[in-house]
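Action item from last meeting closed. Structure (208 res):
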């Protein structure tokens, strides 16, 4: 069952394939058709075959998981990122920055995380041990789970962050430009004036 945000309705959809594309979707998969029920008073409910548990289905789920692990949210000064979570430890500190099309990781040696002023943070990609950009598009992994795993690994006594510092996915292609609407008057004008661009007199004080 798919929730269609623009139409404010729920529709049945058939699963054709699983691909990791851009996750900034207007519509949401709510569950399987067999899990969808309508109550006697007309309400629509999802009765899951398997409990949701700790699965990270939305950004909200991931934000809650990060907060539970002690990561603190900050407001970025740059519009590139929507929200940033940081974790400061004596030997190692980390940063997780959320963009429209992906999630970025950064690590620092020691407890200091540069760029923090109050509840705001200015990210400098050239600082720290490493800065890695991850894209939702063609990531090949569940980027929510991947991010939670990075956050969990950072707080280990002997963290191994090497698997998280290669970056995954790729920048999504730009959508094709819409075809220009046909200007019939311009076509007629060009046919009459030989393509000079000059206005053409038709009759009865009518120019095109």
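Sequence:
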């Amino acid at each position: 069952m798919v929730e269609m945000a623009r139409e404010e309705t729920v529709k049945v959809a058939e699963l054709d394939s699983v691909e990791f594309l851009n996750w900034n979707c207007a519509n949401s998969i709510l569950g399987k058709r067999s899990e969808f029920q309508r109550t006697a008073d007309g309400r629509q409910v999802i009765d899951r075959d398997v409990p949701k548990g700790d699965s990270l289905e939305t950004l909200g789920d991931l934000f809650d998981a990060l907060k539970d692990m002690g990561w603190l949210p900050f407001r970025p000064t740059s519009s590139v990122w929507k929200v940033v979570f940081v974790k400061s430890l004596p030997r190692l500190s980390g940063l997780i920055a959320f963009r429209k099309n992906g999630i970025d990781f950064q690590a620092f040696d020691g407890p200091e995380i540069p760029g923090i002023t109050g509840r705001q943070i200015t990210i400098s990609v050239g600082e720290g041990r490493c800065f890695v950009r991850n894209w939702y598009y063609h990531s090949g992994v569940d980027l929510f789970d991947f991010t939670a795993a990075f956050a969990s690994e950072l707080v280990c006594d002997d963290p191994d962050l090497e698997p998280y510092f290669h970056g995954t996915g790729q920048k999504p292609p730009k959508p094709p430009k819409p075809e220009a609407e046909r200007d019939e008057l311009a076509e007629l004008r060009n046919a009459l004036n030989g393509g000079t661009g000059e206005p053409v007199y038709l009759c009865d004080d009518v120019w095109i």
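Note appended to the action item: The helical segments are 59-68, 143-154, 184-193.
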